[in-house]
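example protein:
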Amino acid sequence: MGVEALGAPRARTRPAIPPLAVDLVFYLGCLAYAVASAIGSEFYGFRVWGGLAAIGYGLAAAHTVWLWTQPRRPGLWNSRRLGLAAIFVFAMLVPLAVLVVRRLTGVDWLITPYSWAAQPEVWVIERSASLLLHNGTPYVDVTALGRAPEVNDYTPYGPVMTLFGLPRALFGGSPVADALTDARLMFGLTACVCVWLTLRLMGNPRVPVRAIQLAVACPLTALTWSVAGPDLAIVGLLLVAGALAARDRPVASAIVLAAVVSAKLIVAPAVVVVAVLTFTRLGGRALARFLGTLIVAGALFTVPALLVDPAAFIEHVIRFPAGLGVVTSPAASPLPGYLIASTGTAGRVLAFVLLGAAAIAILIWLLRRPPVTGSDAMLRTAAGLGAFTLLTPATRYGYLVYPLVLLGAMLCFRRAEGRNTIGSTTSSSPE
């Protein structure tokens, strides 16, 4: 006798949300963000980006609505990727070109955010390269300037980040040379090469639409690409390091990770994840090789700059980002950690307690369910960097680009690993 005959209720299944519906909500949200940036931002670059990006997101939303009304057919015009192409053009390529040219009018270093064609990290990194060439260190002694130091005197990055400014320091000087050596182009080129290399290491899987939306089309990525860029180069290198570890190449992974941490210390939690992945896949000897290579490479990347002026190195790279420098870090986005810490001494203590609790929880997760694949590593790294960004008392909302890109990469790794891709398109939706 069947179950239904016994009077048992039928199992209820939740109806799947159509991928095009998710696309439309995503693009409309992005459109709202772009319009708000164009109208309300204090930064010139943000306003330019918002106005142009709104075109891309608007076209993507309109194309999604059009797809919804059409029968499924093959071809470019019926592909969900066409909307993504519009975003790539109008929210990334065109704003970057406009702002690189606009920067030639000379608005760097002015305390006028409404005129900045590039965010301060671009100028600071380019200056650090000039300082390295002339003084042997990318860091200035802020106590010996002959005036009160200000925030733009700081270079809150490790020595490797200076490499992105070297083209401008070596070859800049004319309008054409300055445009072609803008550090944003170096960041973008590095990010693109890293994505290509990561896909090669993964076996060139077809990238899911949802992964592109999270990692590329998201406003945080597109805006960062146009006005700043260092975080995209760093997260790109993180992807390469994770892919190398997933392909059982711990030494190469350690070298890349050493460069990443030497460029930007806040991504250090990724080292723990990749170390656990290496141990899970290859055992203790491989982990020893990984850690040994990491230490040696990290020393080679960092110690020379440290030895030239240890006090300046610590002031710029350690004290300033932690909010303990001579000048207070302006990183104060209204995220939970900052909001809690701003309530007073007790709030600051509570913020650090919550940050520590999150770190312990993620560490327990790592040890109890260690990553065994690249997608596992991407997910855990995204969780760690996301928690760090949300709960650190002094941080920027732009750092959320790290977990977003890593989650997009996770979808890509899962497809390459032959797993079911979360949020991937179904057979009823056009690609």
Remarks:
- The two ends are 44 Å apart (CA to CA).
- DSSP finds 18 helices and no strands in the chain.
- The CA atoms of residues 59 and 416 lie 30 Å apart.
